[in-house]
Specification:
- With 520 residues, the protein is α/β, with parallel strands linked by helices.
Length: 520
């Protein structure tokens, strides 16, 4: 595991910089100025770059400076109508394009995304606050890999034959659904857009995608690339708020499928909208993921894995963040000492600075919410603050929504910080002694997205992985999702799966049976 972590870090540092931006550094990097030319400022509908019909627009903020960096259209129901109409118009011809040809187009998109990776990565860092080296650049690469993966799977859009008798031919077809309505969040906008667009388009659907209002720019750049290869109307991208643009999209009478990634609360709204029309729906929602460490895993690489599972380098703004860390009592103090030392060495700073490991939270609302959780943790008698805490009020980090990785030790698995999804860099470590007890504590949540297990005992690892109520379990590692993973949640963490061939077939096609009497 140590070798894997070192190799990944070296790979991230060895990426060749193909800057399409101009950069000026001074001092500690917080005064770096990045001039991005041609930031997107319009929506994509029917192959045309357009403003909102209302003429309204809103600012996109750089969370590291709290200053606006771009304006995008404030789309509403009228724009949703236009986009869905464009998708409906393109669907009859797109669905008849041979799957292998659709796959070839996706492969070309992947290559072009790779070519523009540094430009897109810089845009991600600028609008999300995610650090360029540790997060934004890997995300740009991962998005290209998603298009390449599904482009290679186009020939797998096939059915099966059913052996009813020698005089009857019965077979199934995988057919596209129609216009897919997709809504994504801001924490990994490019990757999550790719995970919805690539399989949906590969399967022969058309897509209307609503970006996150806090982070639309990199997705619009992805749309620029897609538009170079896809026919007009196959992909339509809207910008706007959830209430004004997302809700009309989900309730539109002519969409055939809803796909949403975001909070559980909004996911329930999406599911209600789908229920009204009996639409298929995919939901990837919140998480409060457990990390279970057995007594034989008392090593440095385990501390590295716990930190990776917590997604500290994404400010823990991740549904899979392992924020409940169950450490066996025999190693509790030693492992926490390791974790604290390693997280304290992480460099928090300007997302565009190559030296930064950790960037900023996304906006003022999220920043205030996470600070509230930290205040609550400090005030609790059963918890002890070991690292991090409230943000600085002076200095470079006070200029943006910066928080340092924060770690509490506690004996309570029932309080807010262990029950609610914080979506910020706040970890709680809890001791355990009995295996049945730790499984019970891990499952004592209405979430069930991810889980992590660390032990050298294969039997314990498998027993624990099978017992924990989560859709995505990793043992002795804490990497992100890879193309081919069957990824999705149990309980209120979601419905449906993503990232894989099976997910594409289940989420973006419907099965038709055809039976022919061969004697007539």
């Amino acid at each position: 595991m140590q070798k894997e972590v070192i190799c990944i870090a070296r790979l991230q540092r060895s990426v060749t910089l193909r800057r399409q931006t101009t950069v000026e550094k001074s001092g500690d990097g917080m005064n770096k100025r990045v001039a991005l030319e041609n930031l997107p400022s319009k929506m994509l509908i029917g192959g045309e770059w357009v403003d909102a019909q209302s003429g309204e627009a809103f600012d996109v903020e750089n969370p590291a400076t709290r200053a606006p960096i771009a304006k995008v259209p404030r789309g509403n129901a009228l724009d949703v109508d236009r986009a869905v109409a464009a998708g409906l118009s393109a669907f009859p011809s797109w669905r008849t394009v041979p799957p292998r040809e659709r796959g070839r187009l996706l492969l070309q998109i992947a290559d072009r995304l790779d070519h523009r990776a540094e430009e897109i990565a810089t845009t991600i860092a600028l609008e999300t606050g995610n650090a360029l080296r540790t997060q934004a650049r890997p995300e740009a690469k991962a998005a290209a890999d998603i298009f390449r993966y599904f482009g290679g799977l186009a020939s797998e859009l096939k059915g099966e034959t059913i052996p009813l008798s020698e005089t009857v031919l019965s077979y199934t077809r995988r057919e596209p659904l129609g216009v897919v309505a997709a809504v994504i969040p801001w924490n990994a906008p490019l990757l999550l857009a790719a995970v919805k667009v690539a399989p949906a388009v590969c399967a022969g659907n058309t897509v209307v995608l609503k970006t996150a209002e806090d982070a639309p720019l990199a997705v619009l750049k992805m749309a620029e690339v897609c538009q170079e290869y896809l026919p007009p109307g196959v992909l339509n991208v809207l910008t706007g708020t959830g209430i004004e643009c997302g809700a009309p999209l989900f309730s539109h009478g002519q969409v055939a499928k809803l796909s949403f990634t975001g909070s559980t609360a909004v996911g329930k709204i999406a599911m209600e909208a789908a229920a009204k029309r009996i639409l298929p729906v995919s939901l990837e929602l919140g998480g409060k993921s457990p990390v279970i460490v057995f007594p034989d895993a008392d090593e440095d690489w385990v501390a590295d894995g716990i930190i990776a599972a917590m997604r500290f380098t994404r400010q823990s703004q991740s549904c899979t963040a392992g924020s409940r860390v169950f450490l066996h009592r025999s190693l509790f103090d030693r492992m926490l000492d390791r974790i604290v030392a390693k997280t304290s060495a992480l460099q928090v700073g300007d997302p565009l600075d190559e030296a930064s490991d950790v960037g900023t939270l996304i906006n003022a609302k999220q920043f205030a919410k996470v600070c509230g959780y930290i205040e609550d943790g400090i005030a609790q008698p059963h918890s002890k603050l070991l690292a991090g805490g409230l943000p600085p009020k002076q200095g470079p980090l006070s200029q943006g929504y910066f928080l340092t990785p924060t770690i509490f030790a506690s004996t309570n698995n029932k309080w807010r910080l262990t029950r609610e999804e914080i979506f910020g860099p706040v970890m709680v470590a809890i001791p355990w002694e009995n295996e049945d007890d730790v499984i019970r504590m891990a499952n004592d949540t209405h979430y069930g997205l991810a889980a992590y297990v660390f032990t050298h005992d294969v039997g314990k690892a498998l027993r624990c992985a099978h017992s924990v109520e989560a859709g995505w379990v990793q043992v002795n590692q804490a990497a992100g999702q890879s193309p081919g993973h069957i990824y999705g949640g149990y309980k209120e963490s979601g419905l449906g799966r993503e990232f894989s061939l099976g997910a594409m077939l289940d989420s973006f096609t419907q099965t038709k049976n055809v039976t022919i009497n061969l004697t007539r």
